[in-house]
Amino acid sequence: MRHQTIQRLYWTSNRFVTLIIGIAFILIGAIGFFYTPDRAMGNMMGFDIDFVHNCVHLLTGIVALAVFFTGWPRLFNRIFGFIYLLMGLAGIIYPGLYVHDLFLGAIHANAADHILHVVVGAIVTFMGYFVYDY
């Protein structure tokens, strides 16, 4: 008889944060399409959004949910948090990154977006580096 190993998903802090990120970003990305049905720029609760911005949110959410079911949520939080923290700080500190009114030449973003990215990035980076899951 063959024994099968069953990997259990333990509810660690990093895993929980990854689940929240996944659900939140998928919802934000999906709802954003209703605010920009013609793929133009829109405004959702004070945040600039567009088609690419919504796709980035959806992709981030899907990756977060995929990572939730693996053993890598802490690494995801480190990488995701660092990227979002860097993007937010870059948008605040160096506004010259806008090309034709697009942040990094790709997405519409405003100060509210950048501040939110800094806050989310800082919290998630902190979780990934300083909250140990035993």
Automatic annotation (TrEMBL):
Lineage: Bacteria, Bacillati, Chloroflexota, Ktedonobacteria, Ktedonobacterales
UniProt keyword terms in alphabetical order: Membrane, Transmembrane, Transmembrane helix
Pfam family for this entry, one: DUF4383
Protein name in UniProt: DUF4383 domain-containing protein
Segments crossing the lipid bilayer: 16-36, 51-72, 79-99, 114-132
